[in-house]
Amino acid sequence: MTRPSGIEAGDDDGQVAKAWVAAQELRAIYGCRDGDHAANRLYDWTVLCIDSGVAELARLARTITTWREEFLAYYCTAESDGTIKSRHHCEVVYHAWLRRAGKTPRASTRRSGSLRRPPC
After folding, report:
1. Relative to the CA of 36, which of 77, 95, 102, 113 has its CA 20 to 30 Å away?
2. Quick count: other Cβ atoms within 10 Å of Cβ 37?
């Protein structure tokens, strides 16, 4: 019989391995092609976490279930938080550019749901 090494040596109950699998499965949900597919995978992931017997995973599953609509909203916008922050940064730069040019920026640069491209 060989002795386990590394993380396996301290993971007698398999909790670290279960947490790693849950993390990889949660990351994989973001690769889904649409919201329906993601919702189905999120349900499967929730069941996986609750059935794992790891209290922290069950708590995480409850939290993400509470925020389910917000989690799945990613598929409506198809944008990450980084994309939105980048767009906001460009809007801030655009407003600063307008002020330097002696013009008054509008309250918003959005027109009919799309963002005009600022010069950044």
Report:
1. 113
2. 13
Residue 95 token pair: 């407003």
DSSP H helices, 5-80, are: 15-29, 35-51, 55-66, 68-72, 74-77
- Helix pair 15-29, 55-66: axis angle to 10 deg: 20
Q: In this predicted model, what pLDDT tens digit does every residue of 70-89 receive, in sequence order?
A: 888 888 765 555 666 666 66
The first and second tokens of residue 66, run together, are 């509470």
Q: Using CA atoms, how far apart are residues 75 and 84, in angstroms rounded to an integer?
A: 14
- Tokens in use for 68? 């389910």
For the chain, the farthest-separated pair of C-alpha atoms sits apart, in whole angstroms, at 78
Q: Which range scores top for mean pLDDT: 7-11, 13-17, 19-23, 113-117?
A: 19-23
Question: Which tokens go with 3?
Answer: 């002795």
Nearest one of 22, 12, 56, 59 to 42, comparing CA atoms:
22
Full-model pTM: 0.59
Residue with tokens 């092609």: 33
